Amino acid sequence: MNYVLPFLLEEGVYRGRFVKCETLMDELLQHHAYPPMVEEVLTQAVIVAVLLASSLKYEGLFTLQVQGDGPVTLIVVDVSDDGRVRASVRYDEEKLPKQAATLSDLMGKGVLVFTVDQALSENERYQGVVELNGSDLTDSVLSYFDKSEHIPTDLVWLTQVKDGHRQAAGLMVQQLPGKAVKPGKDDFETISVLMQSVRKKEVFDDSLSPEQVLFRLFHANLLLLFPKKDIRFECRCSYDKVKKMLAQFSNEQLNDMYEDGIIHITCQFCGKTYDFKKEDLS
Ligand SMILES: [Zn+2]
Q1: Over the stretch 89-112, which tens digit does the pLDDT of each residue have?
Q2: Ligand 1 centre from 103 Cα, in Å?
């Protein structure tokens, strides 16, 4: 279904993640009617977010935000520590190009921000910021790891629409800090070439298990597999949370929001609508 499969290579010199979303993207997209190019960039952001989140230890929420000044102005994906994923995108339909070749066609100039909010401690907030660059989101993520973390990292994402269903997958490999490559073993560059050789045909082949896909790529690299971790679409919105959000507005601002005596708020992530009458907010 939808999962992350962690693995190690070369006795722990390299760490990897394989993510596959068989139904998750359909679930995320079902309440929206995004044009294909918007769907695609959102899919990419989801795969990147799940890969990054799964490589961090946290109790709370991981959020990936991409902000730009192009036709697509904001993408938000969040992943909770127990594997709940939700995503939304903001864009101006009229400004979308006929064909988007690169990320900058869609998002212009901007930044990619990832944040980890630990549930238990206010202080343990981790944030990474990198300017958008290159032809897709993975380029920005890779330049972050290169410049800020100095951890050799590579990742790849794949998507296809089959019988009207969007499938997506991704792979990430990293060389763990302080781990030296043993003589005669593949260096990081070779590992990333092997990873990049993955093909849609095999990743989305229902007759191949994820373990088999990884074995095809890394059979010579002492592949060690860990248990799969499920991910799923679930929104965290609620009546009370929306009410709290509305409580931050002044009465004057609220008055402007009423339509026939009711404020309708639609969750940007799941499309659920919440209605408030004046007496609900007093
Ligand atoms: Zn929601």
Answers
A1: 999 999 999 887 788 899 999 999
A2: 27
CATH fold for domain 2-233 = Hsp33 domain (3.55.30)
Count helices and strands (H / E) in the chain.
Answer: 9, 14
Centroid of ligand 1 to alpha carbon of 27 (angstroms)? 12
- φ and ψ of 81, to 5 deg: -65, -20
Contacts of 278 (CB under 8 A, 6+ apart): 258, 261
* Residues 88 and 268: beta-carbon distance below 8 Å: yes
For residue range 2-43, what is the model confidence (pLDDT) as tens digits?
Answer: 999 999 999 999 999 999 999 999 999 998 889 999 999 999
Gap between the Cα atoms of 198 and 216, Å rounded? 9
Residue 180 DSSP label:
P
Q: What is the mean pLDDT of residues 198-223?
A: 96
- The DSSP bridge partners found for residue 117 are 61, 125
User: From the CA of 11, how far away is ligand 1's center (Å)?
Assistant: 42
Query: Can you tell me the distance from the alpha carbon of 79 to that of 95, in angstroms, rounded to the nearest whole number?
Result: 29
Domain range annotation of the chain? 2-233, 239-280
